[in-house]
Design a protein that fits this description.
Number of helices: 18
Number of strands: 0
Oligomer: single chain
Largest sheet: none
Helix content: over 70%
Order of helices and strands: HHHHHHHHHHHHHHHHHH
Bound molecules: tryptophan
Distance between the termini: 49 Å
Radius of gyration: 22 Å
Strand content: under 5%
Length: about 450
């Protein structure tokens, strides 16, 4: 095999991993989940879930990946100890690849909407009013074209590989994302109604904490950190031996939760500002609007109410932000099947990327053609059921199947003093027992409900 590519620097890895983690899950999912789950109470539980369950699972993936320096299937086969665990490894790895591809197939649809809404004000500036309107009217052709365009962008970055593709684009796009986010927050917080939104977001109502809130927080944390399907495993495999994994993992978890929290400072107040401008922000049952309605109806009311050019400019910035966040996430999903086909079946990267890109575009097309039956179902199957289950299985691999001495010597790489840290003392048994049990318990609870 040709020499394997690596991230060229620590920053490069952090940008790429944060780019994967930070996506629609942070800027859309987290704020709306917070708003509909009791405000700050959800934020609190979310942070506990992120650091107590998602972070250990993230470490499991990064450590397996760096050790094996390979895609998920090959990696799990490598650390297995006999024919049975090898078969289990193949199964878990393959299932992860399928789930990652399915996640991309619905993610590309939503990201396509973001692109369309980003391009609409541009068309308006150019005086192409029909095109501008077409871009924001939900039609099958609009949905198909926008999704396909987004897939073309994703494929073109991934076909360029690790340093020139994933790392370069993440390092370019992530700072831009933060800049746009902060600028939008400053703008929105000065509008009427923002104060009320801030209060809803920041003042906890502890009585709202219940099992379903905890489950939602866990699911949100796993989705947000891109766990279970081998995304973080493959990013870990592009790290060099002397990187300090536990610390990198903490940074990624912190940055991801931090951006989610900051995004809430934008979205929740923005909804209340939109209300001040006449948008209806509560459903009939008194709950706050969420989902597509929030992003594509409530927020545009806010943008439309702004004077002159400001409205379209803010809309453009907002949907650019959403598009960028989606793109640095979608490339990390596509890398999962691409790494498998290039490494295991020897396909050249550009060819593999295009081939898989076409397959996933076909899957997205099928979802769009049967939207009512498939869209929600695919999301639930992948994110609610498969991701936590796969996450628990990966913990089992690290805790029970991988030879303990090899595991410990892998953790030592990159940090000679690790034996004196809390991570060393707690994590190995934690990931062996506590993580799988807690994930399964929450999972079973969701089946019962
Ligand atoms: N974490 C991203 C977000 O918050 C989405 C994402 C990227 C993802 N890669 C993933 C989710 C792999 C699940 C699995 O939007």
């Amino acid at each position: 095999m040709a020499s394997r590519e690596q991230f060229s620097s620590r920053t490069g890895f952090i940008m790429a991993a944060a780019g994967s983690a930070i996506g629609l899950g942070n800027i859309w999912g987290f704020p709306t989940q917070t708003a509909s789950n009791g405000g700050a109470a959800f934020v609190l539980v979310y942070f506990v879930m992120a650091f107590c369950l998602a972070y250990p699972a993230l470490m499991a993936e990064l450590i397996i990946g760096r050790h094996a320096r390979a895609n998920a299937v090959t990696a799990l086969q490598l650390i297995s100890t006999g024919p049975r665990t090898r078969a289990l490894g193949t199964g878990v790895g393959m299932f992860g690849v399928v789930v990652a591809s399915l996640i991309l197939s619905f993610y590309a649809i939503v990201a396509g909407w973001m692109l369309a809404y980003f391009m609409s004000p541009i068309a308006e500036f150019l005086g192409w009013n029909t095109a501008s309107q077409w871009l924001i009217d939900s039609s099958l052709t609009r949905n198909l074209s926008a999704m396909a365009l987004f897939m073309v962008l994703t494929v073109s970055i991934i076909s360029q590989g690790i340093t020139n593709g994933i790392e370069k684009w993440s390092t370019r796009l992530m700072p831009l994302l933060l800049l746009l986010l902060v600028a939008l927050i400053i703008h929105v917080l000065q509008q009427p109604g923002a104060q009320e939104g801030l209060e809803v977001y920041l003042l906890p109502d502890i009585n709202r904490i219940n099992p379903s809130l905890v489950l939602n927080a866990l699911g949100q944390a796993f989705f947000s950190l891109s766990l279970g399907v081998g995304t973080m495993l493959i990013y870990g495999s592009y790290l060099n031996r002397d990187s300090n994994l536990p610390r990198l993992g903490v940074m990624v978890t912190l940055v991801d939760s931090g951006i989610a929290f900051i995004a809430g400072l934008l979205i929740v107040p923005a909804v209340y500002v939109a209300q001040a401008y006449g948008a209806v922000i509560f459903n009939d049952d008194g709950s706050l609007v969420a989902g597509p309605q929030l992003i594509f109806q409530v927020l545009p009311t806010l943008f439309d109410s702004m004077e002159g050019l400001i409205g379209p400019l803010v809309a453009l910035a907002f949907f650019l932000l959403m598009s960028i966040a989606s793109l640095t996430s979608s490339i990390s999903m596509l890398e999962v099947p691409v790494a498998l086909t290039t490494e295991k079946y020897g396909l050249a990267r550009p060819k593999a990327t295009i081939l898989i890109g076409i397959l996933i575009t076909a899957a997205s097309t099928i979802i769009l053609l049967n939207f009512d039956q498939l869209f929600e179902a695919v999301i639930a199957f992948t994110t609610v059921y498969s991701q936590p289950l796969l996450g628990a299985l990966l913990c089992v691999f690290v805790g029970w199947i991988w030879h303990r001495d090899n595991l410990l010597s892998e953790i030592k790489q990159g940090d000679p003093n690790i034996e004196s840290t809390l991570f060393w003392k707690i994590w190995p048994s934690y990931v062996r027992i506590v993580c799988p049990l807690l994930i399964l318990a929450t999972f079973i609870q969701s089946l019962v409900n």
